[in-house]
């Protein structure tokens, strides 16, 4: 049985196995017990506990009401621990047990430890439960710190690669400290920006805002967001220039920070020790062809937020559109329901919605999602339509449009699509035939359009000017490869002129090989 279970666990893909670590958070039963057990294991370094020790710790949680009565009994704790082991949150520990009786030995011989990924899951859960519902302040002060840190890192890197061995050794140690600090600062800045704009988008997506909310968000957008964007735009050019100067020497920098082979492939290294970390940092501040930076996305998100707020202010001040709304009345009705008793809630429901009790002569319908054991506050959320929350009107508007069958238009569109596909196929054939003598051939406008599309995709893959790039049309079997070559000039004659590419070689060929 043990071997079969091990083979079954090994057969589960790594992604699904890791997602099982979250199973205890949505367990159908004993959810609070699982959460309390995981908090116990995650709160102590190198925790190695037996079922009896866990039961003793749960006794205090049971007296405080954090777990259900009877959950601290050893007979209940053992199956909970085994279930957490099956999900992958806990692993069996190894430690000799000194026991005074057989029962004590049985309860203390099986010991448990928490896995590394389970600690991270529990840490994220506790952090999420502590997060308030309001906006998160953006750490603007980290931007000048990142700019200064990059300048100092560049100077230290120059000393570390210099001719003085003693100064280089000291600079290498300082370089590790500066890289770690830089990436920690950037991670905090990126997290605060994402959280702030996620909250802002959630609020602005609401169709109706109260006047005090509009006033508060107006001050927030005009004052706070403007300062954030100004700080980002002021410090971004210097940060981008410094990162561009380090792009060509990343390999040397990573070598100084220590190769990953020293620690093994399974070791999770600190941020800033891999090529992907530096690429992610650069993409946050620097635009690339086809890949706008996060600074550009932040500027565009700010413009959309200001536009949404101005639309809300216009609706509230001019009285146009769906206002005046019924939001205040609906909130008052919800407060009455919350304060009413069972009998008063039934009467209030009948008076407000005109739905009185009825006798069903047919079999009862199936439940949609919840059951009679689910409180209304934990049940599914009903989406209130715009007409109800704005005008209190539940009537249907308009009627369903009749579906018109237009075979002539359908055939015309199909013929047009076939013609476009045929033109694309002919252009690809022309490029494929001209591949061996691309510099001598004269391409048509359609072939030039296909070539420019492939060139754009290939250039978007390159991060530096000396990188290669490739793009393909997999449907028609054409591949383009872009290769930097010093001193080479590629000229392609077309019907509209001559396309000139400096220090670049182009190779065209069938999908899977290039010529």
From TrEMBL:
<dbReference type="Pfam" id="PF09660">
    <property type="entry name" value="DUF2397"/>
</dbReference>
<protein>
    <submittedName>
        <fullName>TIGR02677 family protein</fullName>
    </submittedName>
</protein>
<dbReference type="InterPro" id="IPR013493">
    <property type="entry name" value="CHP02677"/>
</dbReference>
């Amino acid at each position: 049985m043990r071997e079969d279970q091990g083979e079954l666990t090994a057969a589960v893909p790594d992604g699904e196995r890791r997602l099982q670590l979250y199973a205890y958070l949505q367990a159908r039963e004993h959810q609070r017990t699982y959460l309390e057990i995981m908090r116990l294991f995650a709160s102590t370094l190198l925790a190695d506990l037996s079922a009896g020790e866990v039961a003793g710790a749960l006794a205090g949680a049971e007296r405080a009401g954090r777990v259900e009565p009877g959950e601290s009994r050893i007979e209940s704790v053992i199956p909970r621990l085994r279930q957490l082991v099956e999900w992958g949150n806990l692993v069996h520990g190894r430690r000799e047990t000194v026991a005074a009786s057989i029962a004590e030995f049985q309860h203390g011989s099986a010991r448990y430890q928490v896995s590394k990924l389970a600690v991270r899951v529990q840490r994220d859960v506790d952090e999420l439960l502590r997060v308030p519902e309001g906006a998160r302040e953006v750490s603007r002060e980290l931007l000048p710190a990142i700019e200064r840190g990059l300048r100092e890192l560049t100077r230290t890197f120059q000393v570390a690669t210099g001719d003085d061995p003693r100064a280089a050794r000291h600079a290498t140690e300082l370089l590790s400290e500066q890289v770690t600090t830089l990436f920690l600062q950037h991670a905090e800045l990126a997290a605060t920006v994402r959280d702030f704009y996620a909250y802002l988008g959630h609020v602005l997506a609401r169709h109706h805002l109260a006047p005090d909310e509009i006033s508060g968000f107006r001050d927030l957008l005009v004052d706070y967001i403007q300062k954030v964007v100004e700080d980002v735009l002021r410090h971004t050019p210097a940060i981008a220039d410094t990162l561009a100067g380090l792009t060509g020497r990343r390999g040397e920098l990573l070598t100084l920070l220590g190769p990953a082979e020293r620690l093994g492939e399974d070791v999770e290294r600190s941020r800033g020790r891999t090529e992907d970390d530096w690429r992610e940092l650069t993409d946050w501040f620097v635009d690339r062809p086809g890949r706008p930076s996060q600074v550009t996305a932040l500027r565009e998100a700010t413009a959309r937020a200001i536009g949404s707020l101005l639309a809300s202010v216009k609706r509230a001040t001019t009285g146009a559109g769906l206002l005046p709304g019924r939001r205040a009345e609906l909130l008052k009705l919800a407060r009455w329901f919350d304060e009413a008793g069972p009998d008063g809630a039934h009467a209030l429901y009948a008076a407000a919605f005109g739905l009185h009790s009825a006798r069903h002569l047919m079999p009862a319908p199936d439940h949609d999602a919840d059951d009679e054991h689910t409180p209304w506050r934990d049940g599914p959320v009903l989406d209130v339509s715009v007409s109800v929350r704005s005008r209190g009107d539940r009537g249907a508007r308009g009627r369903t449009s009749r579906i018109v069958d237009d075979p002539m238009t359908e055939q015309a569109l199909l013929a047009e699509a076939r013609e476009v596909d045929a033109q694309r196929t002919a252009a690809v054939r022309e490029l494929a035939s001209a591949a061996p003598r691309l510099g001598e051939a004269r391409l048509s406008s359609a072939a030039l359009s296909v070539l420019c599309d492939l060139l754009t995709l290939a250039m978007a893959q390159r991060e530096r000017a000396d990188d290669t790039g490739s793009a393909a049309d997999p449907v028609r079997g054409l591949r383009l490869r872009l290769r930097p070559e010093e001193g080479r000039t590629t000229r392609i004659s077309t019907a509209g002129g001559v396309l000139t590419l400096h220090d670049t070689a182009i190779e065209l060929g069938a999908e899977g090989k290039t010529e």
